[in-house]
Structures are given as C-alpha cells and as structure tokens.
Amino acid sequence: MANILIIDDDKMMCGILSKLVTGMGHRCVSTHTLEEGLKEKTSGAYDVVFLDVRLPDGNGLSALPGIREGEFPPEVIIITGAGDADGAELAIRSGAWDYIEKPSSLQRITLPLVRALQYREERRLRVRRRAVSNLNLNGIVGSSSRMKASFEILAQLVSADIDVLITGETGTGKGVFALAIHNNSSRGGKPFVTLDCSVLPETLVESILFGYEKGAFTGADRPRDGLFKQADGGTLFLDEVGDLPLAVQKAFLRVLEERRFRPLGGQREIYSDFRIIAATNKNIEEMVKNEAFREDLYFRLRAFTLELPPLRERENDVTELAEHYIQKICNRRGMDPKGYSPEFMDALRSYHWPGNVRELFRVLESAVTMCQDSRTLFPKHLPDDFRVYLSRTAFTPADDMDSRPEQGVRQATASELPSLREFRKAKDRSYLQQLVAASEGSVTKACGISGLSRAHLYELLKAHGLSMRS
Questions:
Q1: pLDDT tens, 386-425?
Q2: Element (H, E) at 457
Q3: 468 occurs within a structural domain
Q4: Coil, helix or strand at residue 153
Q5: Which of 66, 217, 266, 415 has a CA positioned 20 to 30 A from the CA of residue 128?
Q6: Among 383, 324, 395, 333, which Cα is nearest to 357's?
Q7: How would you label 422-445 residue by residue, b for 16+ Cβ within 10 Å and e otherwise?
Q8: Contact indicator for 156, 129 with CB cutoff of 8 Å
Q9: Same domain as 216, residue 79
Q10: Per-chain mean pLDDT for the chain
Q11: Using omega within 30 degrees of 0 as the cis cutoff, is the peptide bond preceding 74 cis?
Q12: What pLDDT, on the 0 to 100 scale, is given for residue 412?
C-alpha cells in the first residue's frame, strides 16, 4: 500500500482523486492549501503527491523543488486547470513525474500514478546506486537543493556508461563535474582527455583528432596518436562543444557513432573505446535552428543532459563555497587560516555573480592577497570593481530621499541603518512588486524583462511572499 497526498483547492477534484487512489488499495490524504499540503508532506512519508498549480496561498510550481528535496522524495504529478507549455517545461525541469491538464480522463490520471509507484518499488528493490556521500566530488562544494539534485544525477551517471552533455553558464563548474563523472566511473584511472573546441584550428583538426602515421605529411617524422586514440578506455571531454567548427562536425559525428577512425596516412581504421562528455554554455537548440550546429550531432551528444545551476540561484551555497576557497587559497600559499567579518560575507551574498563560481574564486584570491598579514577579511579587501558595483546597486536614488539643496540629505544614525543584506532584500522585494505589475502577472514577460530563469523567478517570489499566474 502506497501513501498518496493530494494538494488541490478543488474539493470535487480531490474527491475524484481520493476515490481513485483508495479504490487501488492505497492510503490517501487531501489538503486544500499549499501551506496545509507542505505541512502534511513533512509529517508523513508519501510516495506520490498530486499537486495543483494555482492554489489560494501560492503557486504549486514554486513549491515543487522543496517537495522534491530529500534522499527519497515523493514523485510529483502536476494536475492543473490552467496548463501551458512553459508551465509544463518548468515542472519537468523541477523534477515532476508528469504534467496533466484538467479535465482529463481517469485513465490519463491513473497510468502516471501506476508508473510512478512501479518506479519507486523497483528503486527500493534493485541494488542502490552508489550513494552521493560516497562519491569523490573533487572539491565540488554546495548543499543547496539545486546542487543536491545535481549530485544525485552525478551518482546515476557514474554507473551508466553513456555519453553526457553538461550545460550551464560560464564558470558553473562544467569541467569539474565532467572530471567527477569520469573519476567515479569504471573508467576512473584511465585517460581523461580534454579537447577545447573553442581553440581548435580547422587546418589541424584531422591530425589533432585522428593522429597520423610517419610520413603522412611534411614534418611527420614519427607516428602520433590523436585525441580519439589517447582517450581509449577513458573519457574524451569536449569542452565548449558549441564552438566546434561546422565543417568538422560531420566527421566528428561518424567517429562518435562508430568509435572508428583512420589516422592520416594510415591504411586501416582504428577502434577506440572512449566515453564522450561534452560541455557548453551556449543554447545549442537555438544554434540548430539557425543551422550553426548539426542536429544529428546534437542528438548524439545529448544522450543524457546535466544542467548546472548558476551561482545566483544557489545563494545558500555562497558561504560554504567562500569558506572552502579561502581555506584552499591559504593552504596553497602556506598562510595561516583567515576569518571574515559578517559584512564581508554579506557583500559576497549580495552580489549577482555573472561569472559564477569561477568569478567567486577570483574575487577571493584578490581579497586574500589584499588582506596580507591580517587575520580577518573585511569588505575593504574586496576588489575595487566589486565594491563599486555593490555601492552603485545599493545607492538610493535622489527621488527616494529629501535631497533639496537647501536642506541636504540627513545622515542616518547607526541604529537607523539596516544591514546590507536587509537593504538588498527590501530592494529586491520592491523590484519584484514592480516587475509583477509591469509584466501584468505574466511569468514569460517577467523573465524577459528581468533576465531571470523561471525557476529563479519563482524562488524569489516565494522568498518574498509574492505570486503571479503560471
């Protein structure tokens, strides 16, 4: 017998689902608000959650990542009367089992439930994949829900010897994740060969990839293995695969499909057993539409896709990352450990990190250098460009204060000034309120105006007690 939770303000729908579930021999609990549902989910071990989107006290999609947290979270079936393609995409990317639009037939509802329960039962019975806690993460740091989800996917990829496409913004750690997948797999200890596709010269492509025999061309005084052969038994990491020259992609596709190639000047083809892990910060789907990337190669590369979150969507990880890197920098330089003031960490958490983890490391390298023999890091040790940005974003426009020349601006007392974090939070809430109004409640418009991803927008709205239509 499974435990099913229904979170839906439509009492008639709750009744239909409850009757269906109990008729299948399972236990069912119905709640009619998001708050009640989340409280009930916490108090009980549920296998499946039927979740509505538009609830009286919030948006179900914004709560989905939280429901999916934990070592063995329930499967979530979204059931909504206001379905749309964007909502469906967000639900699937957030870990939903299925996205069903009301009204639907009982069969349309029953089958996903049966399959979700079957999946959970098989997962309980089969030999568990290697636990995340046993993985060698190579210094990958983070305990936010987004990173935990990435670690869980990493654990699955370790035991599945399939090609992987890692996507994410510059500096999110795609190369580090690629190496972690390799090191924890059965190929660990074998070659991990990196090809930076952004600097691959078209005139040398064949010799770099395929290798060559002695005498294949002028200057080839001895045979040389190409990257395909060097990766035999191990992993070939295609960094920035979105920059792979279009003229090279056809030849690349054949090798990826057959794992066979002929070195320059060679008389026979060579087989190489390598795993492909590719990474890109580009939207390859859009490149395919614009004929800048071969569709067949894209489909071949994305046997499994791992999307890494940007640091701005991992605010809770900033402190953990900063502490890790400060210690790492001090150890590398043979320095005594350094502490930090609360204001130093507030400044780091207030920044938007366009360069992600890589930029955070650069900023901390600079701060530790400026700190010299001091034991404590203060905001003044941060790079000037970083401090200028924070100062400008925290600056209150003149129309928000009494700035008449004859009166001037009254200097606030220490007791009146909030912390930088509190100030930023108030500013964020004000911006979000204006964003909701300007976008007329449309998530799509709001994302276009703000530049936020849908998941991050929902996360911010939830944090500030705001909502908008899905």
A1: 888 887 776 545 444 444 444 444 455 555 566 666 676 7
A2: helix 454-463
A3: no
A4: helix
A5: 66
A6: 324
A7: ebbeeeebeebeebbeebeebbee
A8: yes
A9: no
A10: 84
A11: no
A12: 53
Q: 349 is in which domain, residue-wise?
A: 314-394
Tell me how far the alpha carbon of residue 53 is from its chain's centroid: 23
Distance of CA 37 to the CA centre of its chain: 26
Domain check: are 145 and 284 in the same one?
Answer: yes
In a domain, 354, yes or no: yes
Mean per-residue pLDDT, 229-252: 90
Do 453 and 336 share a domain, yes or no?
no
pLDDT tens-digit series, residues 128-177: 444 566 788 877 999 888 888 888 888 888 877 889 999 999 999 999 99
Strand duo 48-51 + 75-80: pairing: parallel
Residue range 114-124: mean pLDDT, rounded:
84
Token code pair at residue 160: 């599945």
What amino acid is encoded at 150 in this protein? S
pTM over 0.70: no
Residue 341, burial from CB neighbour count under 10 angstroms (0-12, 13-18, 19+)? middle
pLDDT of residue 73: 86
Which helix (H) or strand (E) segment is 366 a member of?
helix 356-371
91: Cβ contacts below 8 Å, ≥ 6 apart:
61, 64, 78, 99
Tell me: do 171 and 286 sit in the same domain.
yes
Residue 232 belongs to domain with CATH number: 3.40.50.300
Tell me: do 301 and 439 sit in the same domain. no
DSSP 167-234: E--TTS-HHHHHHHHHHHSTTTTS-EEEEEGGG--GGGHHHHHHEE-TTSSTT--S-EE-HHHHTTTS
